[in-house]
């Protein structure tokens, strides 16, 4: 048997700063790549699965749909905070 990396013991609802940073960086990198080269556009479902894979490499256990849901909640929270802050 190979030695598997332990999965981080973080409640499923709570994302760590490292998970957040990986997701944001990978998403920003993908969006920048797609802006520069339209041939690099990938389906969002594949993007979230790529993030899920990267998170597993760091010892976390998040699915593609969980990554997508977290991104949507984060973007919405940012939008609400910006609106509340005003111009």
Which features characterize this protein?
87 residues, Arc Repressor Mutant, subunit A, globular
Description:
- This protein has three helices and no strands.
- It is an all-alpha fold and 87 residues long.
- It has one domain: Homeodomain-like (Arc Repressor Mutant, subunit A).
- Helix 1 packs across helix 2 (44-57) and helix 2 (44-57) crosses helix 3.
- It is globular.
- It starts with 16 loop residues before the first helix and ends with a helix.
- The mean pLDDT is 89.
Give a short synopsis of this structure.
This protein is mainly α and 87 residues long. 64% of the residues lie in helices and 0% in strands. The longest helix is centred in the C-terminal third of the chain and has 22 residues, at 64-85.
Order of helix and strand elements from N to C terminus = HHH
**Structure class:** mainly alpha
Report the mean per-residue pLDDT as an integer: 89
CATH architecture: Orthogonal Bundle
Any idea of the CATH topology?
Arc Repressor Mutant, subunit A
- What oligomeric state do the depicted chains represent? single chain
Summed up, the domain count is: 1
- Number of E-type strands: 0
CATH C-level class = Mainly Alpha
Distance between the termini: 58 Å
Q: For the CA atoms, what is the radius of gyration?
A: 15 Å
Strand-residue proportion: under 5%
């Amino acid at each position: 048997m190979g030695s598997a990396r332990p999965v981080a013991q973080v409640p499923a609802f709570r994302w760590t700063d490292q998970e957040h940073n990986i997701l944001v960086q990978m998403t920003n990198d993908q969006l920048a790549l797609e802006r520069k080269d339209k041939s690099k556009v990938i389906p969002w479902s594949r993007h979230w699965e790529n993030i899920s894979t990267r998170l597993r490499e760091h010892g976390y256990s998040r699915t593609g749909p969980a990554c997508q849901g977290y991104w949507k909640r984060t973007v919405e929270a940012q939008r609400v905070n910006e609106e509340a802050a005003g111009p």
